[in-house]
Amino acid sequence: MLVALERKLNMVGLANVFSLLALLGFIASLAAHIAGYAGIERPFGINPWPLHVGIFVVWFPAVLASMKLSKGFPQKDMWKAALRGCQKWMRHALYGLFGYAFLSFFAFFVLAGDGENEASTVRGFSGHWLIFYFAAFAILRSYVSVSRSDTIRRCKYLHVVEPAHAHCPECGEYVGRQY
Ligand SMILES: [Zn+2]
Description:
single chain, 179 residues, mainly alpha, elongated
């Protein structure tokens, strides 16, 4: 019991650390993206390409967290389940970024036609880095807050009912929808 609790606390602590890294990655990607528009290849003289690799550092724990968050939820609600713990503005910002990155990717191909250079390539790629870093940030924040707020629900026969379910999986008693 204590070991399980400790493991959970450590997971939350790690998710906290990685969410901070994801936020830093997002800010750095945003700087690289804006610099790309200004025709600058190396913002503040720093090579932005390690950000491409850095995605994997935060994406791996984000995938683990999203698997835990969406456990038991139907496949179509996976994103909703993964983001259920994060604040509303984070969800809106993420959907906004998806739309923007799509346009930015499209613009990259159109504009690349008339003279591709390093800065425009950085701009094209960093549009995607923005999404990956921000999605990892939102999922990890969601995980941290859900770990603190998800309550263990039980039916009247004391069977455990997972957050995804409204009915007890063992006896079928209705316990209400949590999400
Ligand atoms: Zn039951």
